[in-house]
């Protein structure tokens, strides 16, 4: 089995007052040629946004942009006419397509903790789209929760041959990963897990290409990116 452990301490780190961001892959002013993404997965930013601050209106195009809110509420507004609040336990998928502008603001009195995930689409210049779901894996522990995928069974449709699944695994429980595509990339949010004998801790990620069993060494939350390219 081909594997790679991406240690949390090897992530990029940007702090600009109201934003504390850790970059799994090269982003903004942080560049490392060893960390340019995995297949179509291009960005995982672990962002903490201070109260009454956020990202002002800015453009995107030809990117699938997912937001996973872990704590607090982020307020989204875009040029498609969407004005939505994304609460902890909810996910958003914005398909930028031909181009869209949006803002993401923390209007609350406490910091927001969220993940920003970018996936390169397999179709360019499509119509922009917005989707949002509630999928808190802590409400249904010890099973995979499908977040996004290319097929009709997915709660959010992503323009790529990729599935994104989340799980909250209680201490001592296990989940199977079936390697049906080229890359399996598991990113740990909290806790500690064992993947085929490899310990993976918060902020770490593990890349592998064969079936594996995930065992929780303590209560743990993580995301599995099942990537074809």
TrEMBL record:
Ranges where the Pirin N-terminal domain occurs: 11-119
Keyword terms, alphabetized: Iron, Metal-binding
Binding residues for Fe cation: 58, 60, 102, 104
A Pfam short name: Pirin
InterPro entries, A to Z: Pirin (IPR012093), Pirin_N_dom (IPR003829), Quercetinase_C (IPR041602), RmlC-like_jellyroll (IPR014710), RmlC_Cupin_sf (IPR011051)
GO MF annotations, alphabetized: metal ion binding
Cofactor: Fe cation
Source taxon at top rank: Bacteria
Cofactor mode of binding and number, as noted: Binds 1 Fe cation per subunit.
Record family assignment: Belongs to the pirin family.
Name of the protein in its database record: Pirin family protein
Organism: Acinetobacter wuhouensis
């Amino acid at each position: 089995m081909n594997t790679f452990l991406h240690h949390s301490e090897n992530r990029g780190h940007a702090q600009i007052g109201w934003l504390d961001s850790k970059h799994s892959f090269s982003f903004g002013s942080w560049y490392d040629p060893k960390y340019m993404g995995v297949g179509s997965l291009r960005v995982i930013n672990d962002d903490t946004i201070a109260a009454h601050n956020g990202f002002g209106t800015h453009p995107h195009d030809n990117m699938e942009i997912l937001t996973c809110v872990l704590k607090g509420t982020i307020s989204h507004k875009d040029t498609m006419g969407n004005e939505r609040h994304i609460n902890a336990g909810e996910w958003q998928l914005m398909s930028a397509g031909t181009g869209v502008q949006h803002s993401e603001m923390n209007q609350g009195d406490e910091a927001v903790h969220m993940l920003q995930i970018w996936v390169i689409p397999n179709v360019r210049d499509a119509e922009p789209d917005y989707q949002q779901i509630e999928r808190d894996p802590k409400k249904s522990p010890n099973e995979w929760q499908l977040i996004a995928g290319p097929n009709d069974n997915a709660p959010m449709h992503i323009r790529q041959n990729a599935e994104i699944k989340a799980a909250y695994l209680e201490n001592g429980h296990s989940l199977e990963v079936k390697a049906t595509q080229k890359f399996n990339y598991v990113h740990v949010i909290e806790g500690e897990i064992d993947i085929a004998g490899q310990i993976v801790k918060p902020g770490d990620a593990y890349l592998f290409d064969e079936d594996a069993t995930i065992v929780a060494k303590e209560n743990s939350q993580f995301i599995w990116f099942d990537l074809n390219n």
